[in-house]
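Ops channel
N.P.: pipeline sanity check, posting one input/output pair.
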């Protein structure tokens, strides 16, 4: 639904499930944002202002029920792939990287250079890292599955603790 100023309405909710507390948001087209563990609403509002300037933020847990359900199923170990529609906005390169992340199988990890090679841009490892860091939909677009070439845990928008929790969750299922 468009508001009067013809801006896309962003519906949001706080997803609280066991030890997990994160903001999620969607447009009428699909999931557009999954926030970091235990971060404030400001993380979502700052992101929305950059990506959807002037768009209204409207709390609406009902509109997000389907998205929240899939994320909770993932936390419970009952879901390995997400079927919800996405509405992520980035450059053509970023979207190409985000789509490649969705190809990483559950419970596996890939390196930044693996992703660069997968998209046929082997010299673009740093750009791949930057695109991964800009992923707006954590967990559902599994950037947590990307590690350093030597297997080291590298940066993660949600913080390394969240990355470790997600990788641990996938290794136990």
């Amino acid at each position: 639904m468009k508001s009067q100023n013809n801006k896309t309405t962003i519906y949001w909710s706080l997803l609280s499930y066991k030890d997990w507390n994160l903001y999620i948001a969607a447009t009428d087209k699909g999931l557009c944002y999954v926030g970091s563990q235990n971060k404030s609403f400001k993380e979502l509002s700052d992101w929305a202002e950059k990506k959807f300037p002037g768009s209204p933020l409207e709390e609406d847990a009902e509109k997000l029920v389907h998205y929240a359900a899939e994320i909770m199923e993932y936390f419970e170990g009952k879901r390995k792939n997400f079927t919800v529609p996405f509405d992520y906005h980035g450059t053509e390169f970023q979207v190409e990287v985000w789509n490649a992340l969705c190809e990483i199988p559950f419970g596996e990890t890939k390196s930044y250079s693996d992703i660069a090679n997968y998209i046929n841009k082997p010299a673009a490892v740093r750009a791949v890292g930057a695109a991964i860091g800009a992923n707006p939909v954590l967990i559902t677009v599994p950037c947590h599955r990307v590690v350093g070439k030597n297997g080291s845990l590298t940066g993660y928008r949600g913080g390394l603790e969240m990355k470790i929790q997600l990788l641990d969750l996938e290794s136990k299922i």
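N.P.: looks fine end to end. The chain has six helices and six strands.
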